[in-house]
Amino acid sequence: MNKVRARIIVEGLVQGVYYRANTTEVSKKHGVCGWVKNNPDGTVEAVLEGEKEDVELVISWCRVGPMRARVDSVDVKWEEFRDEFDDFTALTRHNSY
Description:
Elements: E1 3-13, H1 19-29, E2 33-38, E3 44-51, H2 52-62, E4 70-79, E5 88-90
Parallel strand pairs: 2-5
Antiparallel strand pairs: 1-3, 1-4, 2-3
């Protein structure tokens, strides 16, 4: 098993187009844990933890996003795996990391 953690920042038309909800669905489908949230600057940020292949699949999906989104760029930073999540959550302003 090769567990990894990635933090991504997605730029483009990614708020108000169900990007967080769809990222949550795709992540859960692939067994990836973590969170996704809207940032005040219009970007979407996510932390993804899981098997390397699964995290890479979610990142690949994030480069396209849901049908109404327009993804201009995805910045990926690989971090040390922490195994700190049991599920995947779409965060709001009221529950953020």
